[in-house]
Amino acid sequence: MSEPKVVPHHIAIVMDGNGRWATRRFLPRLAGHKQGVDSLRRCARACVQRGVAVLTVFAFSSENWNRPVDEVSGLMELLAMALAREVPQLKKDGVRLYFVGERAGLSPKVRDGLAQAEAATAENTRLVLNVCFNYGGRWDIAQAAASLAARGEPITEASLNGAMGLAHVPDPDLVIRTGGEMRISNFLLWQAAYSELFFSDRLWPDFDESALDEAIAAFSARERRFGKTSEQILTAHPVPVLG
Fold first, then answer.
1. pLDDT tens for each residue of 77-125
2. Which cofactors does the annotated protein need, by name (predicted)?
């Protein structure tokens, strides 16, 4: 008998490759981002079906403001359209939305859209979908420390953890990056301390259910020790003897 597959409780994804996907097809970069929204919809549905409880995606980094103006403005318009189109279905599917990131630099229209999407899905429990938008891992650590200092609270690992943007969910078990790049690019620097990393050559619009299953299978085959030895892990979780 084969061992049962271990499904990560929390998967985080750097959704990379939308622009390259479009360029290879002689399309504007925004077309790749639109296709990326479809891939995210497909991935969220697959996570629900496979028993994943939390999905966190890197949608727009704090460094992405340095991209061409027309691409940034197009991304903002795409976000507004995606919220209007996707939120009703996400609500039906039992997906709860959280938007994690700095909102001060966003337009009032975008901020209102994010808040309304969160409110509309607040009662859902099948999947938590965290969308990191205008987010950076360094920003997250800095804002957590600043909020603790402003309240006069001691800055410890535990207090910092509770002030992070993803304090409402456990740390990711598996971090996936698509697009062939092998770096985490300022994503979940605090939370990914003990995450398993998986790098896929597929561009994000091409990342389908089979690619997700490949990443989960790789995760399932790994031994997570969290600083302990293999012997300690085996002692704490002995393999059952069948017979």
1. 888 788 888 999 999 999 999 999 999 878 888 889 999 999 999 999 9
2. Mg(2+)
Indicate the burial class of 67 (C-beta count within 10 angstroms; 0-12, 13-18, 19 or more).
middle
The identity of residue 164, as a single letter, is: M
Asked whether 63 and 134 are in contact (CB, 8 A), the reply is no
Check residue 242 and give its pLDDT: 44
Domain boundaries, the chain: 13-222
* Amino acid in position 73: S
Q: pLDDT of 182-193, one tens digit each?
A: 999 999 999 999
First to last CA, the chain: 12
The yes-or-no answer on residue 130 being catalytic is no
CATH architecture of 13-222: 3-Layer(aba) Sandwich (3.40)
Distance CA 209, CA 190 (A): 28
Told to judge if 173 belongs to the known catalytic residues of this protein, a careful annotator would answer: no
Average pLDDT over residues 14-38: 93
Q: What is the C-alpha separation between 61 and 135, in angstroms, rounded?
A: 5
Give CA separation, 25 vs 7, 32, 36, in Å.
Answer: 35, 9, 14
